[in-house]
Amino acid sequence: MQKSTIQFLLINFVLALVFVSCGSVTKDYTSKKLDKTSYTVPYFSDSKTDYVYKTNISVYGNELSGIFIAKKINDTTHRIVFTTEFGNKLMDFEISENDFKVNSIVSELDRKILINTLKEDFRLLLKKEYAIQEQFENGTSDIYKSKDGKRDNYIFISKKDQKLEKIVHASQTKEKFTLLFKSENNIFAENIQIIHQNIKLKIELNYFKSE
């Protein structure tokens, strides 16, 4: 990948973070009696599996494509590698609930504002356990609220087939970003989207099927 392409994406990413708009947490669900106090995410849990996805990152209409690889290296930590489609490594992270380590990153992407955003996105993507404080429902989902520091995570479980379909990361007044999952068996997610509500940033992961 040419340096100019990465630099162009980075400039637009930074500009996107400057122009932030407000939103609001969805209120179209009702309280329900709590039926569990914890929830375990089924995805990215097998230490023997390399989770490989074709990846597209879109920032205000500008695109960066590559390969996303996640592997569970111990009980608490995942390693994440993001490469170009030609195999050139762009980023290499180790991430857990409380720790984050940058093993390597190309200089064009080595910006604190970008790293912190990806750290927050991937931390939630790979989070295993949620302590549940409240429960809600709407027409299609049971919704579990889990505290996350000064913010909350809302976990949407399909009433139809009990699959994890969505996680919304939000403050008390507005949504920050959303993870959407599509899974055939609720063990492995074939498609994942990370969509930010306050900036035009979207990360889409599609399971890489080797020929």
Topology, pairings included?
Elements: H1 3-18, E1 30-31, E2 38-40, E3 50-59, E4 62-72, E5 78-83, E6 89-95, E7 100-105, H2 112-126, E8 129-131, E9 134-137, E10 141-148, E11 151-158, E12 164-170, E13 175-183, E14 189-196, E15 201-207
Antiparallel strand pairs: 1-9, 2-8, 3-4, 3-15, 4-5, 5-6, 6-7, 9-10, 10-11, 11-12, 12-13, 13-14, 14-15
Give a nutshell description of this structure:
This protein has 211 residues and is mainly β. It is built from 2 helices and 15 strands. The protein has a single domain, classed as Clam (outer membrane lipoprotein receptor (LolB), chain A), CATH 2.50.20.
Give keywords.
single chain, mainly beta, globular, outer membrane lipoprotein receptor (LolB), chain A, 2 helices
